[in-house]
Amino acid sequence: MMKRLLVVLAMAAMVPMQAQATGVELGYAQWMQSNSGDIAGNPVATSTANSGMIWAELEHPVPVIPNLRYSSSDIAIGDTSNNLNLKFNDLILYYNLWDTLATVDVGFGMRSISGSATVIDNPNSIPGTPIPVMFVNLAGKIPGVGLTVGYRYTGLSSGSKGITSTELYANYAMVAGLEATVGMRDESVNFPVSDGDISAKSSGTFIGIMYKF
Hints:
The protein is mainly β. It has a single domain (2-15, 28-212), classed as Beta Barrel (Lipocalin). 6% of the residues lie in helices and 77% in strands. The protein is built from one helix and ten strands. It has a ten-stranded antiparallel barrel. β4 and β5 (102-119) form a beta hairpin. The radius of gyration is 18 Å and the shape is globular.
């Protein structure tokens, strides 16, 4: 997995980066989830939930030094006897390779997964262990209407283990700096713990708002 991250970093460093101004983006969205999971071979009841997502980005014009993205979200699956609660915190370093009518961002970073897993009323905590991930964001602007559509990928896998997070999104510029966002997010994780593997899948639409300055 580290070899893939090094390849991504080397490719990004070799591509001439587009000049850009310093900017900050802050966002919040409500994610309407349909969830399923498994704890060490014990299925967790399928459930639905609403969860908040937050993110922040910092972009700057300094060459070589990557931009910064932080995001946080969580999923809750199951019933009172068997349940899985996971919190994701992503810290991403990325390069803006192109940013005119089209945007191409490529990077790498770490995801921390923490929370708890309960099997037959026996809760166990999940420490926040960092997991390396790759990051890709592709977007295109539709001139004259203030609309941007895009695809975002965060993840890395090795065999059956790994993380895959994808978003299809559309952003609409309402007033100066303020944008609405709507889209579909799919999340899939499979990672080992002391008693076996934990897997979780979550899918659903999201709607939110963000401010850029």
